[in-house]
Amino acid sequence: MIKLGVNVDHVATLREARGINEPDPVAAAMLAELAGAHGITVHLREDRRHIQDRDVELLKRTVKTRLNLEMALADEMVAIALKLLPDSVTLVPEGRQELTTEGGLDVLMLRQTLKHKIGLLRQAGSVVSLFVEPDIEQIKASQRVGADFIEIHTGAYCEATTEVERKEQLRRIELAISAARKLGLGVNAGHGLNYQNIGPVAALPGIEEFNIGHSIVGRAVLVGMERAVREMLQLLPQH
Ligand code: PXP
Q1: DSSP-assigned states of every residue in 17-48
Q2: Is 191 a catalytic residue?
Q3: Is any atom of ligand 1 closer than 6 Å to the C-beta of 70?
Q4: Ligand 1 nearest atom to the CA of residue 217, by list position
Q5: Is the separation of the CB atoms in 95 and 122 below 8 Å?
Q6: pLDDT per residue as tens digits for the range 81-130
Q7: Distance, CA of 134 to CA of 105 (rounded, Å)
Q8: 10, 33, 38, 43: which one is catalytic?
Q9: Burial letters 45-58, b for 16+ CB under 10 A, else e
Q10: What residues does each domain of the chain span?
Q11: Burial label, 14 (beta-carbon count in 10 A; 0-12, 13-18, 19+)
């Protein structure tokens, strides 16, 4: 069964647009769980543009499925993760000007820091995942630095403008899944996935969980969170 992790960052984006206390991503997470989500994901950015520390603290106490904390490799973030102990941590690159996470981590370049910080997080009991491009060298390096999981960045597939390019990107994802599984890594995937493009990726064997945010929250604004989550679950095999 492929699991669905719902990223509720953009409920917080809507809240921050007014600087008040609603809509609350914690309430959205509860509704997503009621609709069958297998996990909740939030990205606590260093600039706190959407999710706030208070959200992660409350989610840690209220999420009944699994809480996945996405974060940069910064010391401040590692300290927060070590204090709150989410079920899993997904390490992502972070750029100040970006609208959303733009690419995967350069695991080869960051290997020393990653090894050290993954060690600390794993020792504290967190499962650690690295957000990487579907690139075999990055995946091999992810295993070498001690990650439990990789999350494959599906952005290039989602942004493909021709059928040929889309197929090429899908093939890259397929090869990346198979390389990661052979190395003993768990495989998640996400970024840019929506109700129209999820089908072919969901049909690839070997993915444990998708992390989907913007498209679900965007649909939830129109049809409600529970229906938006249920409709996405229906597009995953075995549902
Ligand atoms: N996975 C990771 C690692 C991400 O950084 C993001 C975006 O925050 C997502 C999944 C979800 O992407 P989207 O909002 O495009 O569904």
Answers
A1: HHTSS-S-HHHHHHHHHHTT-SEEEEE--TT-
A2: yes
A3: yes
A4: 14
A5: no
A6: 999 999 999 999 987 666 766 689 999 999 999 999 999 999 999 999 99
A7: 11
A8: 43
A9: beeeebbbeebbeb
A10: 3-233
A11: middle
Query: Per-residue pLDDT for 177 more than 60?
Result: yes
* Rounded Cα–Cα distance for residues 191 and 212 (Å): 7
pLDDT digits (tens, 9 = 90+) for 203-214: 999 999 999 999
DSSP string, 173-212: HHHHHHHHHHTT-EEEEESS--TTTHHHHHTSTT--EEEE
Q: Class of the 3-233 domain?
A: alpha beta
The alpha carbon of 211 and the centre of ligand 1 are apart by a number of angstroms equal to 6
DSSP codes, 210-226:
EEE-HHHHHHHHHH-HH
pLDDT tens digit sequence for 2-41: 999 999 999 999 999 999 999 999 999 999 999 999 999 9
Mean pLDDT, rounded, for 33-55: 98
Q: In this structure, which amino acid lies at residue 140?
A: K
* 214 noted as active-site residue: no
Place of tokens 């993915």: 207
Q: Which two tokens stand for residue 14?
A: 């809507």
